[in-house]
Amino acid sequence: MDRAYLLAGLTALALPAHLFAFWLPAGSLLMLLSAAVAGFLNLALMPPVIVLAQEILPENKGVGSGIVMGLAWAVGSIAVIGFGFLGDGIGPRPAAIVSLPLLIIGTVLAFHPSLRLHREPDHS
Amino acid sequence: MERFFAVAGAVTAMIGVIVVCGLLLKILPADRPHPDAAPPTPLMELLRALRGPLGVIFVISALSGFLQRLFLTLSPIISSQDGVSEAIGALVLTVYLAGQAIGTLVWGAYSRTAWTAPTSSPA
Questions:
Q1: Between the CA atoms of B61, B63, B68 and B70, what dihedral angle is there, to the nearest 10 degrees?
Q2: Residue B82's closest CA among A22, A89, A84?
Q3: Is the pTM higher than 0.80?
């Protein structure tokens, strides 16, 4: 499978799933279903991302995994602080929904030229 | 006052964990690298790798982490504002995390079979 389409598909589909998970009334059946799908799609990114990182740094697989798992998630977590302030200003639901278009960055980056050599699995 | 004692309790727990970690460092055997292991890559070289494809993957992963943390942070507040019980709010988080666990397992298994086995293409 072309990994660019995999990453793009997962990030693109995660956007509406999270939108419904935030927008629908909390605790409703549809909302719970959306939350399950959103969680599924969000962390489904991790295995291909880790495999890619290990192929990009074959001599330092541990460090590559650490960068995309630990450092990246730490950076992502810090960004939540800003949306916490936004939530205090406009409400948590609008703040959450406003943040979702950021996922489009991931969808676009999946087709970045630098990933061209890694779009197919490395069977070496 | 109650809030102070709650925070002080956390500090006490932290001190205990730090002490235990220090003891473990003394007790556990040293990590001896394999004689054939390559020397660790210099930090600057690793940071330079972030300018290439690794940096792209880094951003995608950061977005995933951001989204997860955002949901875990704001969902309970949204649940509270919607007037649902704490149990329902916890259920929402549980369902989300369970979905994440399943997603990791499913795609991890798929990655293992689809990306490690050699592909056969028609001649």
A1: 150
A2: A22
A3: no
